[in-house]
Design brief:
Number of domains: 1
Distance between the termini: 26 Å
CATH class: Alpha Beta
Number of helices: 10
Strand content: 5-15%
Strand order of the largest sheet: 3-2-1-4-5-6-11
Number of strands: 13
CATH superfamily: NAD(P)-binding Rossmann-like Domain
CATH architecture: 3-Layer(aba) Sandwich
Length: 328
C-alpha cells in the first residue's frame, strides 16, 4: 500500500486529491491547521460521510524539527504540498489577514523545509507542489506555457516563483520533484471569498427569496477556469511519471466574470441579475493587466491529462451542490 502525505488536505485541491488517492488504495496522511476554517470543517465532514478518514497531524510547516520527525515517521511515497497562504480581493480591508512579507516568508520556507527533508531523509519520494498562474501575472505572453519566462508583480506570485526555483534545485540533485502550474480551478469546495463561489451563493439565495447584493470588482476580468478535481488528478499523474517535470494545468479558454454570472443565472432562470450586482473598485487588487491563459498541451501529450467537464457543467454542479448543501 502506497502512502501519501498531503498538506492542506481539507482545502479544495487537497480534498479532491484525498478522494482520488483513497479510491486507488493509498494510506492517507494529512497536515492541517490547529483550527479548521468553517469551509475546511465542512469538507472534512463530507469526506467522513464518504468513509475517507486520513490520519491527521497538527504541524506548523515552518517548524522544521517537528516536520522532520513527522515525515521520517510516516515515510510517505508521495508528498503533495498544497497548503499556502494567499490574500484574496475579499481580504484587502481585513486587518487580520496575513501581510505580504509574512506570506512570502511562510510559503517559501515551508516548501524549502519539505524539499530538504524529502531529499535528505526519505528513500525515493515523489514531491509535487502547487504553483500558480500568478507566476505569470506581469508577463507579456498572450498564452503561457512551461517555457514562458516567469514574471510577477505580486508577492504571492514571486513566492511561487521562488518555490519553483527550489523545486528545480532539488530536482537537479536527484529528487523526483515538480511544480503544477495551476490556472484558476473552481468547485463547490471553494471558500466563499472566491468569485465563482460568491456568485453561485448569491444567485441561489436570490432564487430562494433573498435580496442580497452581489458585490464584485471587474465584470470584464478574464479568467482561465476549470474544475478543481481535474487539476487534482493532474497532480496525481505528475507523481506517477518516471522523469519529474513541471506542467501547466489550465483550460486554455477565457471567460469573463460576466460570462460566469450569465451561465449561473440562466441555470437558475434569473433574467435580471444585473439589478443585484454592485461594483466595488476595492475588490480589484491585481495591478497587472496580463491576460492569464494557459497552454496545457504538454500535460495532454505527456500525462494524457484532460478536462472531464466544461465550464457550463461546472457551473451546473456548483449550483446543484449549493441547493443541496453537498460538496461533490
Amino acid at each position: 500500500m502506497k502512502k501519501a502525505l498531503i498538506t492542506g488536505i481539507f482545502g479544495q485541491d487537497g480534498s479532491y486529491l484525498c478522494e482520488i488517492l483513497a479510491k486507488k488504495g493509498y494510506e492517507l496522511h494529512g497536515i492541517i491547521k490547529n483550527n479548521l476554517s468553517e469551509n475546511s470543517q465542512g469538507i472534512k465532514d463530507y469526506l467522513e460521510r464518504l468513509g475517507i478518514n486520513p490520519k491527521l497531524y497538527f504541524v506548523d510547516l515552518n517548524d522544521f524539527k517537528r516536520l522532520q520527525e513527522l515525515i521520517i515517521m510516516i515515510c510517505p511515497d508521495e508528498i503533495y504540498h498544497l497548503a499556502a497562504f494567499h490574500v484574496s480581493a475579499q481580504d484587502v480591508n481585513n486587518s487580520k489577514c496575513i501581510k505580504g512579507k509574512q506570506l512570502y516568508d511562510y510559503n517559501v520556507k515551508s516548501t524549502s523545509n519539505l524539499l530538504y527533508i524529502c531529499h535528505e531523509y526519505l528513500r525515493a519520494p515523489k514531491f509535487v507542489t502547487a504553483g500558480s498562474c500568478l507566476m505569470f501575472d506581469d508577463c507579456d505572453a498572450i498564452i503561457q506555457s512551461e517555457i514562458t519566462p516567469f514574471k510577477s508583480c505580486s508577492l504571492y506570485g514571486i513566492a511561487k516563483i521562488s518555490e519553483n526555483m527550489l523545486v528545480e534545485f532539488y530536482r537537479r540533485k536527484g529528487l523526483h520533484a515538480s511544480t503544477a502550474i495551476l490556472f484558476n480551478h473552481e468547485s463547490s469546495r471553494r471558500s466563499n471569498n472566491f468569485v465563482t463561489k460568491k456568485i453561485v451563493k448569491a444567485l441561489v439565495a436570490i432564487t430562494n427569496g433573498g435580496n442580497q447584493a452581489l458585490v464584485l470588482g471587474n465584470l470584464n476580468a478574464k479568467k482561465d477556469w476549470g474544475w478543481a478535481k481535474d487539476y487534482a488528478y493532474g497532480m496525481f499523474l505528475m507523481s506517477q511519471i518516471d522523469k519529474p517535470k513541471d506542467y501547466v494545468l489550465a483550460s486554455g479558454s477565457h471567460h469573463t466574470v460576466c460570462d460566469f454570472i450569465e451561465i449561473v443565472a440562466a441555470k437558475l432562470n434569473i433574467n435580471n441579475w444585473q439589478k443585484h450586482v454592485k461594483l466595488n473598485d476595492n475588490l480589484i487588487t491585481r495591478a497587472s493587466q496580463a491576460n492569464l491563459l494557459g497552454d496545457w498541451s504538454l500535460a495532454k501529450c505527456e500525462l494524457n491529462w484532460k478536462h472531464s467537464i466544461s465550464l457550463g457543467q461546472l457551473a451546473d454542479l456548483m449550483v446543484e451542490n449549493e441547493l443541496s448543501g453537498e460538496l461533490a
